Automatic annotation (TrEMBL):
Annotated InterPro entries: RNA-binding_CRM, RNA-binding_domain, YhbY-like_sf
UniProt keyword annotation of RNA-binding present: yes
Lineage, top ranks: Bacteria, Bacillati, Bacillota, Clostridia, Eubacteriales
PROSITE patterns: CRM (PS51295)
UniProt cross-references to SMART domains, sorted A to Z: CRS1_YhbY
Organism: Eubacterium callanderi
Domain CRM: 1-96
Gene Ontology molecular functions: RNA binding
Name of the protein described by the UniProt record: CRM domain-containing protein
Presence of keyword Amino-acid biosynthesis: no
Amino acid sequence: MLTSKQRSYLRKLAMDIPDIIFIGKDGITPEVIQQTRDAIVARELIKGKIQQNSMEEVEDAARKLAEATRSEIVCTIGNKFILYKKNLLKTKIEVPSKNSKTLKKKNKR
């Protein structure tokens, strides 16, 4: 389970990556699930998009793909979704730990 700070960090990283999963009129097919599995193993953080001709809702599609790939939903915005799953063999993204506290600098006068 991701914390809100971890989600925020991953959302920030996802701003610069392109959409690589596209769900069209056929919905979530076995091919889309396999493509998502392959992409999430290779990249850890992926972004997908629901096409205009699709009957799928973005929350439902993200939930189904997350369950099928055992990943976590970072967020859904409009017709896009972001999924994350840590690759234990080749970690590419270092997500802040749940215990880490950010230190705020105090202004000295």
